[in-house]
Amino acid sequence: MKRVIVACGSGVATSQMVSSKLKNLLQKRGIPAQVDAVDIKSLDRHIKNCDVYVSITKPDKEYPVTVCSGIPFLTGVGMDAELEKIIQALK
Amino acid sequence: MGPIFSHFFHRELIFTDVVYADREDLLEKLSRSLWEKGFVKETFREAVLERERKYPTGLRILPYHVAIPHTDLKHIKTPFIAMVRPKQSIQFIEMATHDQVVDARLVFVLGLKQSADQVELLQSLVDLFVKQQVMDRLLKEHDVEVIMRLLEENISEKGLSV
């Protein structure tokens, strides 16, 4: 199964919330994917086995996977567009 | 008062019309107060300041910009959500940027202890941020009881567990 990781600074609060929201949205659209909130400190380890990285911090380097923003899922602003981007990357 | 609501929100953690020099001043003063009241460990102050510098928490949300400072759960003793209404808006850096400034009118400091259970609470808080009428009142009410009631009425406990 394709895997999405969501990371924020502490792996608490915001990444948990975004991953739970994203999980529901993907489920509603019938897109099978595993969504996990991870701690930014273990990002390099997780990035190796994921397809999309949803970032709630400013990415400070290039990653070999699709990088999307988690902020729209937090605030609701621009959420549909970002969701489409994630869905495309999961196809 | 619902059990979840009263688990996180406390009268003594509603701060209205306080004058702060800047966001670090706000976080310093609030950390001191949280520590004196027994909600956080002494390490919270440095941890929340550091975290805000590295991973800022300003939210460009409408009708009013807000900030949700928080840090690792190991610095928390008793779970809480503190509401700070600075007399003048305070500049925070927008989440996921290094340099975009947002003028936060309200600051909710999150002291969550277990992350998984509290997703709904955070979602509920963000849902509150976009309610114009409630936010308007949160920005001008002076009575702490009224503010507590407004928060309680607008923070749904659906699906929450402590």
From TrEMBL, chain A:
SUPFAM superfamilies assigned to the protein according to its UniProt record, in alphabetical order: PTS system IIB component-like
Pfam families: PTS_IIB
Residues annotated as domain PTS EIIB type-2: 2-91
One of the GO biological process terms: phosphoenolpyruvate-dependent sugar phosphotransferase system
InterPro entries (UniProt xref): PTS_EIIB-like_sf (IPR036095), PTS_EIIB_2 (IPR013011), PTS_EIIB_2/3 (IPR003501)
Keyword annotations: Transferase
The keyword RNA-binding is annotated on this UniProt entry: no
Molecular functions per Gene Ontology: protein-N(PI)-phosphohistidine-sugar phosphotransferase activity
Source organism, top-level taxon: Bacteria
Name assigned to this protein: PTS galactitol transporter subunit IIB
Species the sequence originates in: Marinithermofilum abyssi
